[in-house]
Design a protein that fits this description.
This protein has 6 helices and 6 strands. With about 190 residues, it is an alpha/beta fold. It has one domain: Alpha/Beta hydrolase fold, catalytic domain (Rossmann fold). Strand 3, helix 4 and strand 4 form a beta-alpha-beta unit. The longest helix is centred in the C-terminal third of the chain and has 16 residues. The radius of gyration is 15 Å and the shape is globular.
Amino acid sequence: MRHVVLFHSVYGLRPAVLAAAERLRAAGHRVATPDLYGVPPADTVEEGFALLDKTGREVVLDRARAAVAGLPPETVLAGLSMGAGVAGAVLADRPEAAGLLLLHGTGGSPADVRPGLPVHLHLADPDPYEPPDEMDEWRRAMTGAGARLEVFRYPGAGHLFTDPDVPDHDPVAAGVAWARVLAFLDAE
């Protein structure tokens, strides 16, 4: 059983995020899903970016740090798209994190990675938010810092392929991704 904090995408704390948390809970994990905006979620990605701009990136990060403050040091930091970046940013304050679980986006700075840190990345292939050259640079930096990085690409899937409420949803890719996520969380 792991403690997991799951940070939402730019859309906000939507039903898909809560359903993902329930999936992880059903597998025996304790999952926190903080609301980084404090307002109802957006219906479109454009509205989501507007919410992020209105809330402010620093406020989002402050809320994320507050959300993990009461969690065990070895909590797995996880995020969906924008939330992957949030999880990676929180890693700087959580050196004992049991892992970094990134869905639909990269996150984490090599400066914050301890040798051996398990990192799982699940991305569409191609992904419009993760250009190949930036992805390759991030991969080299993370492995160079000692992360035990595993990258999973999902050809033909849309950016938020695990989210059944958006056009990007790909049920086959999502099923494979969630199986891999559960294996990652169950690994000792």
